[in-house]
Design brief:
Residues 16-139 form the Polysaccharide biosynthesis domain. The protein is mostly helical. It has a single domain (14-139), classed as yst0336 like fold, CATH 1.10.3560. It is built from 5 helices and 2 strands. It has helices at residues 14-37, 49-59, 70-73, 76-89, 120-132; strands at residues 99-103, 115-119. A two-stranded antiparallel ribbon has the order 1-2. The longest helix has 24 residues, at 14-37. The protein starts with 13 loop residues before the first helix and ends in an 11-residue tail after the last helix. The mean pLDDT is 87.
């Protein structure tokens, strides 16, 4: 990649989009399988869950992790806050900016109505918060 690369002007190549979709879907399926097998409150998603969680609470103290408002989540003001959040943790999370799927409602599973596009670090921040607060425990089949 060159220093002059401008992501805003880059082409969306269909084969790359398909590869992203396959990887993101696989990640979502894997995570859902974990949530249905192990209480979320017992999961660690990264080696720095506590640091991500603490930074998330400071940066987004009023964020509704139970039901994400997609319009607010994707607003310019929110995007600016998320960019700042990334800057503090980007070296801690591999592929922090990789696109992934995030459930909008904590009480639902992955599907077209309950999914939103997010970065991997956004996914981690929100799902770590959901797990630490015990909100994902409802999905575990062993409850």
């Amino acid at each position: 990649m060159t220093e002059n690369f401008d992501a805003e002007k880059a082409d969306n190549l269909p084969e790359i989009e398909k590869q992203w979709a396959v990887k993101a879907t696989h990640q979502a399926e894997t995570y859902w399988n974990l949530l249905t097998a192990i209480p979320g409150s017992k999961l660690r998603l990264t080696t720095c869950d506590d640091e991500i969680y603490a930074a998330f609470l400071v940066t987004f103290p009023n964020f509704n992790i139970k039901n994400i408002d997609e319009d607010n989540f994707k607003s310019e003001k929110s995007k600016a806050k998320w960019r700042e959040f990334h800057r503090g943790l980007e070296n801690k999370v591999e592929d922090h900016n990789f696109g992934t799927l995030l459930r909008k409602r904590v009480d639902g599973e992955y599907n077209a109505e309950n999914g939103v596009f997010a970065t991997r670090l956004q996914f981690y921040a929100i799902e770590i918060a959901r797990n630490k607060q015990g909100l994902n425990d409802i999905h575990c089949k062993r409850n």
